[in-house]
UniProtKB/TrEMBL annotation:
Superkingdom of origin: Bacteria
Organism: Dongia rigui
The protein's name in its UniProt record: DUF1203 domain-containing protein
Length: 159
């Protein structure tokens, strides 16, 4: 299977800029502002770790169009200031390379988890595993999440 058949999709810039400007998160709260110590603060927009001394936001995010039983929400990090959006390409985002393990989950066209698609993979196997999940007709997209905390990292789609 070719990895060129997928693309990594970060949070949309319009949503990120609104949150960076103080718009409420999925809990209806303003994002919290903190200063990074440089240890493991992955921005879901640029897919880079927030550098030590830089400001970042912690907020609750729901990567689904509407609430429903499978529409998980959870904490994510963003740069507090504008950063460029990671392009929608098949190349593994930089922040993935410095992590040990990810949880991939497939979702159908109704934004519901498709049971049996959940898998834990190291970065070196992530593209291949995502391609395999997306090869199924009942899968619309895949979430890449932290294997340790289940935090949403990005969406993976067919290219």
């Amino acid at each position: 299977m070719k990895t060129a058949s997928i693309k990594f999709v970060s949070l949309p810039t319009a949503i990120v800029r609104a949150l960076q400007s103080g718009a409420p998160d999925a809990n209806g709260q303003a994002p919290e502002r903190h200063i990074s110590d440089g240890d493991g603060i992955p921005c879901r927009h640029c897919q880079q770790d927030v550098a030590a001394g830089d400001a970042y936001l912690i907020l609750n995010y729901r990567p689904f169009p509407a609430p429903q039983p499978y529409a998980e929400t959870g904490p994510i990090f963003l740069h507090a200031d504008a950063c460029p959006r990671y392009p929608e390409v098949a190349d593994l985002p930089p922040v993935f390379a410095v992590r040990k393990l990810f949880l991939l989950k497939g979702y159908n066209a109704h934004d519901r988890i498709v049971y049996g698609t959940g898998t834990l993979v190291p970065p070196a196997e992530l593209n291949e595993a995502a391609v395999k999940i997306l090869a199924r007709d009942d899968i619309a997209y895949v979430h890449a999440r932290s294997a340790y905390n289940n935090c949403f990292q990005c969406r993976i789609e067919r290219a």
